[in-house]
Design goal:
The complex is a heterodimer. Chain A is mostly helical. Chain A has 19 helices and no strands. Chain B is α/β, with parallel strands linked by helices. Chain B contains 16 helices and 9 strands. Chain B has a 5-stranded parallel β-sheet with strand order 2-1-3-6-7, sandwiched between helices. Chain B has a two-stranded antiparallel ribbon with strand order 4-5. In chain B, strands 8-9 form a two-stranded antiparallel sheet. In chain B, a hairpin with a 5-residue loop joins strand 4 and strand 5. At the A-B interface, helix 9 and helix 19 of A face helix 1 and helix 9 of B.
Chain lengths: 519, 363
């Protein structure tokens, strides 16, 4: 079921809210959790019921494994805990690998070896990339002793909770379960409902008004890209339009998820914090799809970087060789994983490699700058601050790099990606095709850029009500040039009502699937 | 409940107020005026393009419409207005015929076209398509082209499509309002373009290309086995009602509600109704609700065509040869129907010399 559908907004959501709070009032929080879990399963199965057994298996299997790991750990049987963890990871990743990568691997092996072996087309179960990562985090946290004493009902809800089920935010057990155990859980708080509706409305508006409008321009540009005539103007138009579409689409979805969670009294973590306002690629990745980054940082990058740093130090690697071993290798692995997490295709590999290169260049630049400032300190000089124009230049450079990589991300194949990126790099002339972006698109892009650059993001608008579980970490970060906070006064109510009305009405233009549902 | 002592109303009331503002906004938006011609252009570049042509035919084409055909793709492709006009003329009853059918079933859209028809023309016969089964729901194009009042107040508010049609208005009306204020903004014309109109297809019984780029070869002849295979494939994807029968009896009655409405319009304007049945190949030819249609008008049942594969372009549509046969038969039925009317002094006695222009426009 799509958040941006009438059946969800006027059917499922009100029914789920009423059933949840009514069962909470009359039968207690445990009953409410069961009701919400069942509703979440209905939500999941609505689109493709045949995927439901896979989700149910993932929930039951990981719950049982989690309990076994926790018991082994409690009994100080660390070897058993480790064995169960490895078994769980193998099954979870095996399932993901089969559904997501089997076709890709077999096709490429066949192409490389000249074999005519083919595999039937495997249909990717909805949201498997998201719920697999969530379960892996749960198992690893169980083995680390972070998670203890899981009950089946609370785990079922944690694993199936519909606002985050299909496309995140990828939640950690430790940030959700305490809320489910709170005495306020399943007790109707109108305040949460109001705040949730406002956040949901803003997210829905981002999706239906901004993202879908941008998509109507971006999609034709990317269609059969390799066969189109490209020049720099057309290529950058496609890149910028798609970058804005991707951001408004996915951040809109995340806002909706956060708003929906809040309606049920559960605060979810932030997934975006104005990443397009970042002045460096490292900062960008801290603020883009934040819950995926923190997952990969905690469960891939750090476990790789720590031993590699020790290894390189033990071998006396310093300077660039130490940097390559301790930072370069884990960064490349992490970003290639980010790429292929989005899909099985060479474009996603190239996307990951591109961002790894960006990040490493950024890391190296940062290191050089640190060294330069160290030398200045030794020379009793103040550290050199970046000038306004220099910062603006870094903003633009970051955005250009992001847009460049996003073209590879969006392209249906390397040939398409090559055609567009080649034109972006100026290899096909500046304006040889005579393409000029439509005036409406120019106005749309300008308006979206102005909103993104100048106005507060959703959590900054809702800052007075701690909209996300980790909002405290981001409350003071990158405050916008124009500030406005939502308040439940007349102006705020009218704002919320108008945004809600406009966002719902734009659903009529056609319900477009969220881009991240493909992953 | 006060929040922080600063706000007087509680959060529950604020929640209601937000929803109230949204609903009021929707109502205000839905009541914005529009330009009807622009409304009918909303489907111009879609499979329902003949709805726009129909509006232009009725409002901007000075030729009369003596015989109007309302239906879906079966009548759009299976009845040739020029052929019917020519046959009528040859039989000494020269009449202007317009095929106002629009692809896809849905009686409400046919009613909307009939409503425009009787506002501008004085048809003597209205031919309405019927199927072997009664189509339960409204037409997807209705919400785009029907007047806001007709969408907001359907004959029965419990009809399956009514809620989704109604909720479309707050989106449609602001767009049309903007289009009326600035016609170039959303690409809708505020003036009739005769050149564009003349270039449009009006006879779909000959080969044509649809708005989605699909070329329809009306001279196609395929084997009976192929037609059966097409029918079987279509049957597998045909949408069936999942509603309980007691609810479906209230919601899935679009055909009855709007057929009655068309009949009332016809009666009020002195027009006769003819219900035409064009079968699918090899499918049952028993007309559901036949008795109900028979009470409202004459039934032209061409179910016997169902056995001849040489007359079908696809399992559901006659080819050009089949269309010519069906058109000739319909012309005969119209002649019979009007025979009584003419005897009673009907104005049809005055022949209409412009009747063949449809043929010219189509070709």
């Amino acid at each position: 079921m799509l958040f941006n559908s009438f059946v969800f907004i006027f059917g499922f959501l009100p029914a789920a809210l009423i059933a949840f709070y009514a069962s909470g009032r009359w039968f207690g929080a445990r009953a409410a959790a069961v009701v919400l879990s069942l509703a979440s399963l209905v939500f999941y199965a609505w689109w493709r019921p045949r995927d439901l057994p896979i989700l149910l298996f993932a929930i039951v299997f990981n719950y049982v494994l989690g309990v076994l790991i926790q018991r082994a750990r409690a009994g100080e049987r660390m070897r058993a805990a480790r064995t169960w963890l490895i078994f769980g990871l193998v099954v979870d990743l095996g399932l993901l690998g089969y559904y997501k990568y089997a076709n890709f691997v077999v096709d490429n092996v066949a192409a490389a070896t000249g074999s005519d072996f083919t595999l039937h087309h495997i249909i990717l179960p909805l949201a498997i990339s998201f719920f697999t990562f969530q379960k892996i985090a749960y198992l690893v946290d169980s083995s680390r002793g972070i998670v203890r004493g899981t009950g089946p009902v609370e785990f079922g809800l944690f694993a199936a909770f519909f606002p985050q089920l299909l496309a995140g935010p990828i939640v950690h057990y430790s940030e959700i379960i305490p809320q489910l155990r709170s005495p306020l859980f399943a007790r109707l708080q109108w305040r949460d409902l109001v705040i949730g509706v406002v956040i949901f409305a803003i997210g829905l508006a981002k999706k239906t008004i901004a993202a879908d409008t941008l998509a109507s321009y971006a999609n034709p540009l990317f269609l059969h890209a390799a066969n189109q005539d490209w020049d720099t103007t057309r290529a950058w138009t496609a890149a910028v339009t798609y970058t804005l579409q991707l951001y408004t689409d996915f951040s809109g979805y995340s806002d909706m998820a956060i708003g929906l969670g809040r309606m049920f009294g559960v605060k979810l973590p932030l997934n975006f914090h104005s990443p397009l306002r970042a002045a460096s690629i490292i900062d960008y990745w801290r603020r883009w799809h934040m819950t995926l980054q923190r997952f990969l940082l905690a469960y891939v990058y750090q476990p790789l970087a720590l031993p590699l740093n020790r290894w390189s130090a033990a071998r006396g690697f310093t300077g660039w060789s130490g940097f390559a071993a301790g930072v370069g290798l884990p960064t490349v692995i992490t970003f290639v994983l980010i790429g292929v997490w989005h899909g099985a295709g060479w474009t996603f590999v190239v996307f990951g490699v591109l961002h790894a290169v960006y990040v490493l260049v950024n890391e190296a630049w940062r290191e050089r700058r640190k060294q330069a400032n160290r030398r200045r300190r030794k020379a009793k000089l103040p550290p050199r601050d970046l000038g306004r124009w220099e910062i603006a230049g870094y903003h633009l450079l970051t955005l250009a790099c992001v847009a460049f990589a996003n073209v590879v991300f969006r392209a249906t194949g390397l040939a398409d990606a090559g055609a567009i990126t080649g034109a972006m790099a100026g290899l096909r002339g500046l304006a040889v095709t005579g393409y000029t972006p439509p005036a409406a698109l120019v106005a749309l892009v300008a308006a979206t850029v102005a909103v993104v650059a100048l106005l507060p993001n959703t959590q900054q608008i809702m800052a007075a009500y701690r909209p996300a579980v980790n909002f405290g970490d981001w409350a003071g970060v990158n405050l916008p040039p124009l500030r406005w906070q939502w308040r439940p006064d007349t102006r705020g109510i009218v704002f919320a009502g108008v945004v809600l009305f406009a966002a719902v009405m734009f659903i009529q233009r056609g319900q477009a699937v969220f881009l991240y549902f493909n992953f | 409940m006060a929040a922080g002592g600063r706000h007087r109303i509680g959060w529950g009331l604020r929640f209601a107020a937000i929803l109230g503002v949204a609903v009021l906004g929707a109502i205000a938006a839905a009541t914005l005026p529009d330009h009807p011609y622009q409304r009918w252009q909303l489907v111009e570049d879609t499979l329902y393009a003949n709805a726009t042509w129909s509006y232009e035919r009725l409002h901007f084409d000075p030729r009369p419409v003596d015989v109007a055909i309302l239906g879906a793709s079966r009548t759009l492709m299976g009845l040739s207005a020029p052929r019917i006009a020519a046959t009528l003329s040859a039989a000494g009853t020269p009449l202007a015929v317009a095929n106002l059918s629009v692809i896809e079933d849905g009686r409400n859209l046919q009613w909307a076209i009939a409503d425009e028809l009787f506002r501008t023309k004085r048809p003597r016969v209205v031919v309405v398509m019927i199927n072997e089964t009664v189509h339960r729901w409204g037409h997807p194009g209705f919400r785009y082209v029907a007047p806001a009042a007709a969408v907001a107040a359907p004959p029965d508010p419990l009809l399956h499509n009514s809620p989704t049609d109604l909720i479309f208005l707050p989106y449609r009306q602001p767009m049309l309002f903007a289009a009326a204020a600035a016609p170039g903004l959303v690409g809708l014309r505020d003036r009739f373009d005769p050149v564009r109109y003349a270039a449009k297809t009006s006879d779909y019984s000959v080969s044509h290309t649809l708005a989605d780029g699909k070329h329809i070869d009306m001279d196609r002849v395929v084997s009976a086995d192929e037609l059966r295979a097409e029918a079987a494939a279509f049957a597998r994807i045909r949408h069936r009602s999942s509603l309980p029968s007691w609810l479906a009896a209230r919601t899935d009655v679009d055909d009855a509600v709007y057929t009655d409405a068309i009949a009332r319009l016809a009666k009020a304007n002195g027009a006769r109704l003819v219900f035409v049945f064009l079968p699918e190949f090899g499918q049952p030819t028993t007309i559901a609700s036949r008795a109900r249609y028979a009470r409202l008008g004459r039934i032209a049942d061409f179910g016997d065509l169902a056995t001849n594969p040489a007359l079908f372009q696809s399992f559901a549509h006659l080819n050009h040869r089949g269309a010519l046969i069906a058109s000739d038969r319909l012309a005969a039925t119209v002649t019979q129907v009007l025979g009584g009317a003419r005897a009673a002094g009907d104005r049809i006695a005055a022949p209409n010399t412009a009747m063949t222009s449809d043929t010219a426009a189509a070709r």
